[in-house]
């Protein structure tokens, strides 16, 4: 997220990281601990966490703790926006830390996350109003006035949005662009892999017009890795492979298991499974009797 093109978001995350670095020294950390212990509020966090550049879940916790612990938050509005949106991706991030990751489940979770983000985007005015109210309460507590930034005719380092209220300005300049960027990242990293998932499922599904179409798209993605490139040969091998799977007393649970039973009779299927096996893909549920076309 440090590669985010929205300057205000980068500034926000940079502020969180600087706060962590400031309190990493023992004496400063002790002072922070004393303030936490003497606070009348119910505080769960005990220290500021480092904001990892590659893990969303750690960034979420670092921002969450920053909000809870820092008494003077200059960029409170940006911090709260980032916290809310990162929270939507938290289940997805946790799933990808699972050793037995399942691409099928991960993509389903990504689709659910995407729907939530798109709901926020389509209802940006109402959703941001709730965020802005939270920011206003925090700003009032810290004696900070949320005002419109000074606008100039030419602006290089900050979005130059013409608006009548601070709420409109921050919604248009930060909230909506950040949502658009986040939605784009989810689609690029997860949703675009649906073709791979459908193709993988076609290796274990009844032979239908739909499954053959999925298989064609699948082999097109990995054509350079295959031994044969003739579609008729590949379809024949697929049918033989499905017949083989159907003859097994127990259906394998994932790509790693099925790879162990694939032999030289199915060289192209074996290549595809080799590519997919590291992802620990779990096989889709299916009836015992597959098509014997």
Walkthrough of the structure:
- It is built from 13 helices and no strands.
- Residues 72-77 and 287-293 have low confidence and may be disordered.
- With 293 residues, it is an all-alpha fold.
- The protein has helices at 7-22, 26-38, 56-69, 76-88, 90-95, 103-122, 124-141, 166-189, 194-202, 209-221, 231-246, 255-259, 267-276.
- The longest helix is centred in the middle third of the chain and has 24 residues, at 166-189.
- The chain folds into 3 domains: 1-87, no CATH class; 102-147 and 159-191; 193-280, no CATH class.
- 24% of the residues are buried.
What is the mean predicted local confidence, pLDDT? 73
Which value, in Å, is the CA radius of gyration?
A: 26 Å
Which word captures the global form?
Answer: elongated
**Total count of strands:** 0
N-to-C SSE series?
HHHHHHHHHHHHH
Share of helix, binned: 55-70%
Overall number of domains: 3
Structural class: mainly alpha
**Unreliably modeled segments:** 72-77, 287-293
Distance between the termini: 49 Å
- Proportion of β residues? under 5%
Question: Which sheet architecture does the biggest sheet show?
Answer: none
The DSSP helix count reads: 13
């Amino acid at each position: 997220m440090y590669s985010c093109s929205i300057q205000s978001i980068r500034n926000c995350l940079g502020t969180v990281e600087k706060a962590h670095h400031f309190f990493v020294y023992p004496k400063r950390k002790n002072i922070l601990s004393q303030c936490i212990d003497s606070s009348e509020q119910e505080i769960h966090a005990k220290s500021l966490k480092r904001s990892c550049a590659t893990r969303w879940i750690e960034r979420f916790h670092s921002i969450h703790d920053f909000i809870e612990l820092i008494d003077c938050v200059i960029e409170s509005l940006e911090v709260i926006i980032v916290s809310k949106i990162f929270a939507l991706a938290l289940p997805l991030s946790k799933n990808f830390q699972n050793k037995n990751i399942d691409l099928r489940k991960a993509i389903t979770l990504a689709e659910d996350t995407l729907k939530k983000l798109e709901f926020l985007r389509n209802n940006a005015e109402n959703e941001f109003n709730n965020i802005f109210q939270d920011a206003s309460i925090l700003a009032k507590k810290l004696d900070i006035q949320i005002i419109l930034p000074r606008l100039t005719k030419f602006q290089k380092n900050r979005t130059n949005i013409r608006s009548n209220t601070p709420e409109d300005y921050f919604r248009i300049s930060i909230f909506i662009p950040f949502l658009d960027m986040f939605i784009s990242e989810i689609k690029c990293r997860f949703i675009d892999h649906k073709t791979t998932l459908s193709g993988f499922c076609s290796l274990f599904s009844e032979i239908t017009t739909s499954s053959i179409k999925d298989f064609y798209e699948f082999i097109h993605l990995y054509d350079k890795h295959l031994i044969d490139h003739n579609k008729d040969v590949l379809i024949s091998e697929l049918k033989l492979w499905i017949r083989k799977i159907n003859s097994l007393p127990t259906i394998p649970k994932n790509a790693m298991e099925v790879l162990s039973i694939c032999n030289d009779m199915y060289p192209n299927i074996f290549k595809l499974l080799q590519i997919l096996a590291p992802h620990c893909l779990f096989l889709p549920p299916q009836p015992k009797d597959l098509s014997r076309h």
